[in-house]
Amino acid sequence: MTVPWxxxxxxxxxxxxxxxxxxxxxxxxxxxxxxxxRPSKKAALLYGPAGVGKTSTVYAYASERGYDVVExxxxxxxxxxxxxxxxxxxxxxxxxxGSRKKIILVDEVDGVDTKADSGGISALVKVVSETRxxxxxxxxxxxxxxxxxxxxxxxxxxxxxxxxASIASHIKKIADMEKLDISVDVIRRLAEKSEGDIRAAINDxxxxxxxxxxxxxxxxxxxxxxxxxxxxxxAAVFNARNLKTAMTAINNVEMEPGELLTWVLDNAVxxxxxxxxxxxxxxxxxxxxMVLQKILKTQRWGLLKYFYALVSGxxxxxxxxxxxxxxxxxxxxxxxxxxxxxxxxxxxxxxxxERCHLSTYKARKEMLPYVxxxxxxxxxxxxxxxxxxxxxxxxxxxP
Amino acid sequence: MLxxxxxxxxxxxxxxxxxxxxxxxxxxxLTTKSVPHMLFAGPPGTxxxxxxxxFARDLYGPNYISDxxxxxxxxxxxxxxxxxxxxxxxxxxxxxxxxxxxRILLLDESDQLTDAAQHAFRRTMEQFSNTCRFIxxxxxxxxxxxxxxxxxxxxxxxxxxxEGVKEMLTRIAGSEGLxxxxxxxxxxxxxxxxxxxxxxxxxxxxxxISKAVDEKTIYTVMGLVEKGxxxxxxxxxxxGEFKTARDLLRELIYxxxxxxxxxxxxxxxxxxxMEIPDKDKIVLLDALGEVDYRLAxxxxxxxxxLAFLAKLASLRAVAR
Lengths: 399, 320
What we know:
The structure holds two protein chains of two kinds.
Chain A: H1 5-8, H2 21-35, E1 43-47, H3 54-65, E2 67-73, H4 80-93, E3 101-107, H5 120-130, E4 135-139, H6 148-153, E5 154-158, H7 164-177, H8 184-194, H9 198-211, H10 218-239, H11 243-251, H12 257-271, H13 275-298, H14 304-312, H15 330-337, H16 339-356, H17 360-377, H18 381-385, H19 389-395
Parallel strand pairs in A: 1-4, 1-5, 2-3, 3-4
Helix pairs in contact in A: 4-5, 7-8, 7-9, 8-9, 10-11, 11-14, 12-13, 13-14, 16-17
Chain B: H1 4-7, H2 20-32, E1 38-41, H3 48-60, E2 70-74, H4 80-92, E3 103-108, H5 115-127, E4 132-138, H6 146-149, E5 153-156, H7 162-176, E6 179-180, H8 182-192, H9 196-207, E7 212-213, H10 215-225, H11 229-238, H12 242-255, H13 260-273, H14 278-296, H15 301-319
Parallel strand pairs in B: 1-4, 1-5, 2-3, 3-4, 6-7
Helix pairs in contact in B: 2-3, 4-5, 8-9, 8-10, 9-10, 11-12, 12-15, 13-14, 14-15
């Protein structure tokens, strides 16, 4: 059986934790309060993005200093009673002479659903006030209003994303221990893709190793397969005789839903000539967009099937697409081509913002159109804002 | 030539137009020199930032900025609360060499900060309150968290009344040698409502067309500034040039960076002026209302507005 590398290489000692030195420092300081019998706060709330070492800090500390960790997942326990019984009994046992010292770890505190777990938070507050052993709470976002009473009781310790370079060197270490033949370039890409989430980076590395592809660039492989996929799928969707074939085609595309929507939308505009069909297709896609936004907001991925159904709906216009050539989304091209103009406008807006005590957005929206008129009338005004010649040209509407 | 919004920015509290209550409170504070943290709340263009500057100048003298006694940070431009706190720390750490013993930090558009960032900022406020006073500026005071509000004296700015705007525009017209008739001022007010910045901008834009400004000049200017792209986009969709219309939509969203809700309101104004049957107008306004709602709950602007343009395109096809 394969052990997940995130477990296999979980730090055993405090010194092995990657990044977040200041947070680890604060945690040690807080625990030393417990060691001397006078903790500043009875609980610590470790918060920050996923995969940056919050839980690992607790386990590393425990293994180094001889503690047992009693882990409770706050979003698993459904009721106040459960939280109290689990945490409460662990807290009692600690007082028995001779037993190993304990730390209680409550994960996903911000995941407690107040409606489902009636009194979950207030139970935690109560347990924290009464505990005789250290309680560590973990959360991604601790600023939710309903966590306010809990925040007051806790030492707040903030974790931030881990620097790319640290992630890269850590991955290199694991790769060496696993005797993987991996290039610097692949490591760099993995580190970049992780966005500061070291757990994700390790998981990606393991996935690559299991596919036996660590010597090649991961994106390059993925990309090539994907393109073929999407063009085939588009043809199938726009030629579909019925919803079922269209849905099967769409379901088989491996692509982020948002990206998929862009591909289908931009190609629908190319394919449909008849305005009525175009309008129908675009309305399906607009609704698909709403479903997707709802999913992203509530994380209810079960709704994804409705998104796919609506995206497939574009194929029901009944034109067929034989002989049609599908293209890259024109949006990607548009964004690339307009980059210089966008940068000019950004720079103009920043200069206006500075001179007129505004944010760049307000400068762009409320001042820029007027400033453009003034520049057309009298170039001198450019001096006041410090515009360079390309910016003046843009404002004056010259090519 | 200077932008008039800068040229005629008030230099002292005495030059602030309207906002009598706020000015009175601030003058009281000036006499006692005991300055609290303050929250300036009110709609755009009512003089919040200008008043903060005028107050600082009255308190510290004309070199208030170059003496390092006043700094302005825009919350919506700074990347994240950590950057802001870092800037605040470096600025507020030392005691200034002035008789007063504290500096002022203006945090503009502070309602753009997330709740988490505001909590973090609150601690920073407390940490440095000996050497630094904070003036937070916001459009909506209810977007500022309670703990910050309760630490601040709240000054409420009201939309400027027509007389206030008229007084200012007449003063500017006088010193710029401009003739502006009453109807023109009415028109400026209709476009700007209580937003002085917009009113002054419109007047200056009009002055680039003619030294005698009347109602027509104002409409011409507003046509140049506001209409144009949105109207052309609708016309192109209607006449079947869908892809060109889409380019304009993309220009509005991605290049000009317009707020989608602003695009929707321009479209709704344009629909009324379009030469299409009233029945079609209703159909379009109905669809636009749906778009407006969807954008408000998180829909993607390009996707939603493009579907609307397709709807407009299909109307013509049906009519044929």
